[in-house]
């Protein structure tokens, strides 16, 4: 086992998103093969900013799985813990656009490799060489991947590795909203840092107002940090006594895919770079880390695509300078 230390190890779904790309000369829809999966987006976002990241997951030993592995590696994410299954195919999702431009999805996920990741497929030794462990609820929706996710969260905590959790709720993957709530509420007590969207905070707590939802989450779980992303409205962040409310970085949003994932990746990369734990941060340092995450989310929303839309470190630095000169 390597002794090298990773900043973040992310467990999660890694799949192909086929997105529409026009009509062929024969009159049939054309689909583009895109890498997909929130935790992979998050890991790539953090890696682009210079964090050492590793990905834990399972894909098929097929053409799609090999392409996904290459994508991680090209983006600087260590893929040594990515299993290639001989039995299960890589999970696929097709995005359909209707005449009005509204999106719908067809998932080819049941029995897909990512959902089939069992305890035997993961090497818990990864937790001995990472500073943060990240996961989301997508692998908790079905298959052996649900209990594997919980066991990894529990093992991380036993070994003193802070758990970063993004519920990233995808209701169409679950049998019912009650089931989503039940499983995610089982995960929240195992998390140290949580990133939710405003809608997710409201749904999970059953509160009507965002303020009440945030209050309830902070009181009940006492996370090291709670990050609440609000799309074009920016974000809020809480850590101990520190509170930040920040308007969005002004961009023309064209595609918000991966904005939330890149926000979390940016937060973790900046936190790691500070060399401090959340509780050691000053008010100014916490604000600056949230500002970085907010800019990264905005830059990602200003471009089409997911991993291909993630900004580089230089782009983030340039945007930070520009925004300071405007303030
Ligand atoms: P999620 O994808 O998890 O729902 P959000 O849509 O809230 O996440 O986006 C995450 C972050 O990305 C926001 O907090 C904000 O910093 C940035 N962002 C998202 N949409 C926009 C936008 N339209 N304009 C500027 N920034 C945005």
Secondary-structure blueprint of this entry?
Blueprint: E1 6-11, E2 15-23, E3 29-36, H1 38-48, E4 53-60, H2 63-74, E5 77-85, E6 92-97, E7 103-108, E8 130-136, H3 145-158, E9 163-166, H4 177-187, E10 193-197, H5 198-205, H6 210-221, E11 225-229, E12 235-239, E13 242-246, H7 259-274, H8 283-301, H9 313-326
Parallel strand pairs: 1-4, 1-8, 2-6, 4-5, 8-9, 9-10, 10-11
Antiparallel strand pairs: 2-3, 6-7, 11-12, 12-13
Bound molecules: adenosine-5'-diphosphate (ADP).
Bound molecules: adenosine-5'-diphosphate
Unreliable stretches (pLDDT < 50, length at least 5) are: none
Helix and strand succession? EEEHEHEEEEHEHEHHEEEHHH
Main sheet record: 9 strands, mixed
Shape annotation: globular
**Spatial ordering of strands, largest sheet:** 5-4-1-8-9-10-11-12-13
**What is the number of E strands?**
13
| Mean pLDDT over all positions | 95
Q: What descriptive keywords fit this protein?
A:
4-stranded mixed beta sheet, 9 helices, binds adenosine-5'-diphosphate, alpha/beta, 9-stranded mixed beta sheet
Description:
The protein has helices at 38-48, 63-74, 145-158, 177-187, 198-205, 210-221, 259-274, 283-301, 313-326, and strands at residues 6-11, 15-23, 29-36, 53-60, 77-85, 92-97, 103-108, 130-136, 163-166, 193-197, 225-229, 235-239, 242-246. The N and C termini lie far apart (48 Å). The protein is globular, with a radius of gyration of 19 Å. The mean pLDDT is 95. Strands 5-4-1-8-9-10-11-12-13 form a nine-stranded mixed sheet, with helices on both faces. The chain is α/β, with parallel strands linked by helices and 327 residues long. Helix 5 (198-205) crosses helix 6 and helix 7 (259-274) runs antiparallel to helix 8. Strand 9, helix 4 (177-187) and strand 10 form a beta-alpha-beta unit. Bound molecules: adenosine-5'-diphosphate.
């Amino acid at each position: 086992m390597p002794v090298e230390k990773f900043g973040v190890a992310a467990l999660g779904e890694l799949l192909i998103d086929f997105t529409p790309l026009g009509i062929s000369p024969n009159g049939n829809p054309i689909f583009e093969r895109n890498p997909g999966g929130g935790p992979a987006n998050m890991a790539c976002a953090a890696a682009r900013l210079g964090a050492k990241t590793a990905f834990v997951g399972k894909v098929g030993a097929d053409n799609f799985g090999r392409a996904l592995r290459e994508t991680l590696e090209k983006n600087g994410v260590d893929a040594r813990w990515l299993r290639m299954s001989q039995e299960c195919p890589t999970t696929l999702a097709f995005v359909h656009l209707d005449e009005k431009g509204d999106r719908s999805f067809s998932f080819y996920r049941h029995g897909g490799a990512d959902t089939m990741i069992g305890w035997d497929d993961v090497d818990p030794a990864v937790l001995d060489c990472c500073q943060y462990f990240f996961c989301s609820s997508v692998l908790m929706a079905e298959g052996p991947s649900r209990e594997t996710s919980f066991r990894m969260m529990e093992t991380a905590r036993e070994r003193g590795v802070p758990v970063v959790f993004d519920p990233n709720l995808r209701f169409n993957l679950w049998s019912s909203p009650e089931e989503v709530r039940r499983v995610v509420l089982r995960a929240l007590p195992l998390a140290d840092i949580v990133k939710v969207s405003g809608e997710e905070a409201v749904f999970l707590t059953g509160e009507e107002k965002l303020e009440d939802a945030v209050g309830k989450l902070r009181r009940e779980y006492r996370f090291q940090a709670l990050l609440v992303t609000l799309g074009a409205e920016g974000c809020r962040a809480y850590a101990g006594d520190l509170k930040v409310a920040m308007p969005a970085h002004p961009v023309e949003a064209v595609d918000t895919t991966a904005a939330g994932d890149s926000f979390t990746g940016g937060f973790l990369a900046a936190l790691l770079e500070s060399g401090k734990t959340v509780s050691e941060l000053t008010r100014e340092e916490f604000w600056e880390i949230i500002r970085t995450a907010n800019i990264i989310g905005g830059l990602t929303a200003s471009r089409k695509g997911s991993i291909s839309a993630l900004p580089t470190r230089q782009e983030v630095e340039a945007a930070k300078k520009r925004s300071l000169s405007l303030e």
